[in-house]
Amino acid sequence: MAIPTDLEHARTLDGRDELAAFRARFVIDDPALIYLDGNSLGRLPIAAAARAEQAVREEWGSRLIRGWNDGWIGLPERLGAKIALLLGAAADEVLVADSTSVCLFKLVTAALRSGLAAGRTRVVTDALNFPSDLYVLRSALALADDNHELEVVPSADGIGVSPTALAAAIDRRTALVALSHSSFKSAWLHDVGAVTAHAHEAGALMLWDLSHSVGAMPVPLGEANADLAVGCTYKYLNGGPGAPAFLYVRRDLQERLDNPVAGWLGHEDPFAFAAEYRPAAALRRFLTGTPPVLSLALIEPGVDLLLEAGLARLRAKSVAQTEYLIGLWEALLEPLGFRLGSARDPERRGSHVAVLHPEGLRISRALAERKNVITDFRLPDSIRLGVCPLYTTFAELHAGVMALRDVVERGLYQAYPAERTGAT
Ligand SMILES: *Cc1c(COP(=O)(O)O)cnc(C)c1O
Question: Could you tell which of 39, 130, 238 is best to mutate to test the pocket of ligand 1, judged by most ligand atoms within 8 Å of the CB?
Fold first, then answer.
């Protein structure tokens, strides 16, 4: 059904938005900026700016090394317990440590080396997974001693993966199934419950990368009884550039797995400075070196905002906003040659919408430089329009699509080079 494409309608939708007040909790110093890239780097919560000042001046500046005993040492677990609330996991099942890629390497390697995967040599993933995840999986497999191999289930349309094809790839040879819950490019959403159940029926372990879903929707890790997970904190969690990632290990597996990058912070008693490594009990063994305290401290304010807003309400708004974007695409962008790069079924769609155009790179550049609209571009032709339900407005989405239309209709992108420069 066609949706109204006027700005008035967008404003009406904003007027009905129960979460609208959360936008004022973020630093927005250019009200004219249309920011549709919070799925790559979330905005700065006002409380995080204040927390940064406190962490630097008071904790580091005044307390100096005493800070470790004032709370720094327990931060990876304390924040993990809070993030667990976003995952339906228990407080002692989540730990904040390292980058997502490193957390993934640790958990995959630990799983493959454990008795839990004995006699099994395959890891199953899909072609929609984040490239870094594929690199990490391959390097973890190369270090495993058997003839391990990675099976990458293809995507027929670049948008989704057939649940039947995925199920068919998982069998008695499968040690581990490792997937991104929501795909970075198309936002394709796997069914966590169904896929985890299938992996378990085959006797395989299940690992989810939640980087593109956590904070935008409830993630039912606990309910699905998933084994392992990792996720990023600088996207929908608004933890700041390069903020450390989290890892989840179901409680009954924690002492059956060993950290492949054993280090002193994961030792049972780090300050004994013992020559022999003895892993800490439970999840703390997955720490390696000194936690990045300042970055860790900045994660909490964003998580608090999500908990205050409530994940069910965030997901409802995210679905309404991606539906709205798809409605605008159909009315205004499809006639200009844009294709839809995300699923139409909201059950299979995360919190961004990809629109595809052969001139996508130049278009996204023209959007940023001529229209003050920030999106991002993913090769070969995908412009991602990210929806962050804590602060994205319907009026912003409307303005973003209008700007896209103008850039293409007036050929404004033609002034920009087609070569990539720097980060996109
Ligand atoms: C963003 C993202 C990452 C980020 O990895 P880092 O190692 O933290 O840079 C990893 N996996 C997925 C699926 C992502 O979306």
Answer: 130
Distances (CA, A) of 385 to 34, 349, 355: 11, 13, 8
Rounded distance, CA 196 to CA 302, Å? Answer: 29
List, by residue number, the catalytic residues.
130, 209, 234-235, 384
Cβ 299 vs Cβ 79: under 8 Å: yes
Phi, psi of 169 (to 5 degrees): -80, -15
The whole-angstrom separation of Cα 273 and Cα 271 is 5
Each residue of 392-416: pLDDT tens digit? 999 999 999 999 999 999 999 999 9
Task: Give just the sign of the alpha carbon dihedral 339, 341, 347, 351.
Answer: negative
Question: CB under 6 Å to ligand 1: residues?
Answer: 99-101, 130, 132-133, 180, 184, 209, 211-212, 232, 245
Tokens coding 369: 């430089």
Pull the structure tokens for residue 349.
Answer: 């769609």
In angstroms, the CA 122 to CA 399 distance is: 47
Segment 61-101, tens digit of pLDDT: 999 999 999 999 999 999 999 999 999 999 999 999 999 99
CA of 250 to the centre of ligand 1 (A): 21
How far apart are alpha carbons 307 and 45 in whole angstroms? Answer: 14
pLDDT reading at 129 higher than 70? yes
